Each structure stands twice: as C-alpha cells, then as structure tokens.
Backbone:
C-alpha cells in the first residue's frame, strides 16, 4: 500500500513565526487532503490539493505530484493554529480506494 | 467542517451495553465512512458505504455493526465492546469514491468503554 510520511513529527513555534510542514508519499495518488485536528478532536479540512498551489488566508499548500510530495505553509502563526496537521492521500486505481493518513505533525504555538 | 453531524458527542458505556452512534449529512454525498482514532494516532478506516451499500470493511470485529438506512444517514451499532475500543469515532462523507471527492468529517463521538 501507499506510505505517507510527514515531517517534522513535532514543532514548537512562537506566535508570529512561519513554518513549513512536509508530506511525502510513496506512489502516485489521485487525491490529497490536508487537515487540522484541533485540541477538541475536530478534524477540519484545510485543502484538497492533488496538484498545484492553493492559498487560504495565512495558509497555503503546494503539491508536486510528479515528485510525490506536498507542503503546507503556515505564516504568522497564532495560538489557535495549535493541534495536529494530517496529510491524507488516496489512490483510486488498483482495486483499493481509501484515504490513507500520515502520522501527523503536532504543532504547538506559544504566545 | 460542520456539515456532517455526529451524535452523541460523548458516550460512556459498559461492556454489556448496546448503543449506537449516528451520523447525518445533507450535502447529497453518496459515500459515507466510519473512522476510529486512538489517542496520538491518525484516523483509521473502519467501513465505507457507497450508494448505501457496504463497499469496504477493514476486517472490523463483529461487535461493530454499521448500517446505512438512507443516503443521508449512517449508524454504527455497538455491542459487547472492550475497554480497548475506547476512542474517537469519526464519520465522514464524500461526493463519491472517485477523484475530485474530498472527505468531509464530522466532529466525532468520544467513546469510553468501562
């Protein structure tokens, strides 16, 4: 099956700092999503980005499908950005179609 | 994402109890999912329903029984659970199971088995 690796596993930032989270995957994929899970367990869609670049406020994401990685950029971080960031991928072909999650990057933003 | 609604938010049950988790979406999605998430781990797929038919069962023990009464509703019936089944149970939906079908998650049910 597809392997999804996220780095770094843990990240501590001061409020206002910028950061880049990385997601590597081992095979070609059809779908890729970034999620933020807040401390209450809510899993929030950030981006659906199988390829290309998207921006939403202070967050942006880039997926280079041919090189099998995706990056999530957080600028001017805020304490509310704390939580776990998951990358998840899905490959439609091959007779098995499911969303596979990476282990996540645990982010703590301190005031 | 709050377009997928899960009830209850919290549930405490004994090992001999029978309970059900409920999930509802009104986005017209035709695929619905149950995921289980243990502390400090990513969500793990349990079941997938596509067009109200079970399409994927990830070898889940029979004490978990899914049901999809219609295209908007998904239930997870629980019976004779073990303490290790305590976890966050997440429901999700997507337009279909193909490309251009991102998953939308509910807020989860936090289950404690005593």
Residues:
């Amino acid at each position: 099956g597809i392997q999804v690796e996220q780095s770094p596993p843990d990240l501590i930032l001061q409020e206002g700092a910028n950061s880049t989270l990385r997601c590597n995957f081992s095979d070609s994929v059809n779908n890729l999503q970034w999620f933020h899970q807040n401390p209450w367990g809510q899993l929030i869609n950030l981006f659906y980005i199988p390829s290309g670049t998207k921006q939403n406020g202070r967050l942006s994401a880039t997926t280079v499908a041919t090189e099998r990685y995706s990056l999530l950029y957080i600028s001017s971080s805020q304490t509310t950005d704390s939580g776990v960031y998951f990358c998840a991928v899905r490959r439609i072909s091959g007779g098995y179609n499911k969303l596979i999650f990476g282990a996540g990057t645990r982010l703590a933003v301190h005031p | 994402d709050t377009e997928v609604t899960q009830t209850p938010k919290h549930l405490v049950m004994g090992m001999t109890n029978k309970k059900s988790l409920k999930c509802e979406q009104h986005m017209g999605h035709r695929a619905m999912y149950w995921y289980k998430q243990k502390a400090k781990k990513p969500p793990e797929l349990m079941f997938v329903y596509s067009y109200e038919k079970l399409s994927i069962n990830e070898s889940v023990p029979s004490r978990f029984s899914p049901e999809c009464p219609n295209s908007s509703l998904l239930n997870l019936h629980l019976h004779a659970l073990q303490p290790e089944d305590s976890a966050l149970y997440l429901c999700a939906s997507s337009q279909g199971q193909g490309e251009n079908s991102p998953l939308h998650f509910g807020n989860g049910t936090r289950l404690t088995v005593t």
About this structure: The interface with chain B takes residues 30-31, 33, 35, 40-45, 48, 50, 86, 88, 92, 97-99, 101-104 of chain A (CB under 8 Å). The mean pLDDT of chain A is 94. The first strand of chain A starts at residue 4 and ends at 7.
